Amino acid sequence: MDRPRKILLSKALALRPDAVRMLEAISGYAELGLREFRTSEILSGFLESKGFRVERGIAGMETAFRAEYIFGRGKPSVAFLCEMDALPGLGHACGHNIVGVSSACAAAALAGFGTGRFRSGRIVALGTPAEETGYGKARMVEQGVFQGIDAAMMVHPSSRRHVAKGYLALHKIRFTYLGKASHAAAYPEHGINALDGVLLLFQSAAALRQHLPETVRVHGIVTEGGKAPNIIPERAQAYFYVRGENDAELADAVRRVKECARGAAKATGCRLKMEAGPYTLSAMRVNPVLAGAYRRSLAVLGLTESDAPVNKNRGSSDVGNVSQAVPTLQPNVPISGGERVEIHTRAFEEATRSRTGIDGMMEGIRALALTAQELFSSPALVRDAWKAFRTGRL
Questions:
Q1: Which of 30, 101, 148, 359 is deepest in the core (most CB within 10 A)?
Q2: Which of 225, 249, 276 is at the close of a domain?
Q3: pTM of this structure
Q4: Domain span at residue 34?
């Protein structure tokens, strides 16, 4: 390992006490999307203390922030994404406590290292709220926050170490069925049961799954089903997620699910309202040049990537929208000491705060810092990342 990398890693390791302190605090808060006030202040305040210029409340979101550390003319510009929100009832069972701290500390380590070494560059740490609702980054892309960014990166905790695991595209729909209330025993023939519309939608969607591509996912919940057993429900609602491998596959699946919803309304005599979520999440485009740089960082750290398939067990994230705007990377860091622990479970939430969780966080800080350092040191690498982004190949 060359001397500059040794110095950078020493600066990253020196931030361990700050990282652990912030992880413990943020884990205790476990704030929901767009309400991450204390989490946002912890991360942005830490960056401010390291010499970053911080702008809070960006893109019309109170908890979103942009922290910058500039060398020379400010090019290239590398963004570290600080996710912040937690899950209702499960806390940080998706690991955004590790995500936010890893990105903030990687940015701080790189800033400390770059002073006097980088002639030009811009380190940007972005506080990105509400990932769990697929909102924060999608809105930031829409509002132009990523204009001028040359590469965006973050790590996400997992039970395995992956470099290039992607995400599915996602569309969210609320289906509201409107019927007619009546007494369920005395005058049932006078009513139109909105809940029947919802139940028939679920049965239709279940039958549809057999005929969808294996990469499509359709799943929903009943959010409203009536007021009392002796009243025919005049209003019922379901909330569905539809996912696909790409935009075309997703659009076709959404069309077919909507046909199921219309059929259920017609069969039950209900009126139907359909409301899409504020943003459709794009599939993740993993930039191969950034992935190569991250793999070289792992090699420097003496770490090997898991050989488990990367096209299985995928969810969706608004980082996919970022990946459609700029070269983007989101590797996985292991936090469970080799044990298989699945996200969105209580066991995963506990793992984020464990000794192995802290080890995974520190791996992410070091690997991100090394990857970004290579980008700052090699203008050709940045050009290659953009070439791959625009053409899909080198």
A1: 101
A2: 276
A3: 0.93
A4: 3-167+281-391
